[in-house]
Amino acid sequence: MTLFASKADLQTCSKSQRGVEFRQWATKILKQYLIDGYALNEARIKNAPSSLLDLFKMQVRLWERQELLNTEIQEEIKTLGDKIISIEAKIKSVD
């Protein structure tokens, strides 16, 4: 006696079981996110900016992609970038 009436029944059961396993996995992950309150992207952390200037440049590129920058803002960004360079140089000289 076979457990399944046809090959189609076997495939349906197999797909159904995979669906159950996926939902169990997803529930576990989402529950952990709720408990921890965050999700970490390890690749992003490894490639994180190593300085304030790098972080600032990343933010400026984001603003550029969103087309949020006009001439006045670009001038202020340059001034701020120069100040960041100066601050980082002073910090390195203390080390």
Detailed description of the structure:
- The chain has 95 residues and is mainly α.
- The chain has two domains: 1-39; 48-94.
- 77% of the residues lie in helices and 0% in strands.
- It contains four helices and no strands.
- The chain has helices spanning 7-36, 42-46, 52-65, 71-94.
- Helix 3 runs antiparallel to helix 4.
- The protein starts with 6 loop residues before the first helix and ends with a helix.
- Class derived from helix and strand content: mainly alpha
Mean of residue pLDDT values: 82
Pattern of helices and strands: HHHH
* Major sheet details: none
What would the principal axes of the Cα set say about the shape?
A: elongated
Low-confidence stretches: none
In total, the number of strands is: 0
Radius of gyration, CA atoms, in whole angstroms: 26 Å
Calculate the terminal CA-CA distance, rounded to whole Å. 79 Å
Portion in beta strands: under 5%
Would you spell out the secondary-structure blueprint of this structure?
Layout: H1 7-36, H2 42-46, H3 52-65, H4 71-94
Helix pairs in contact: 3-4
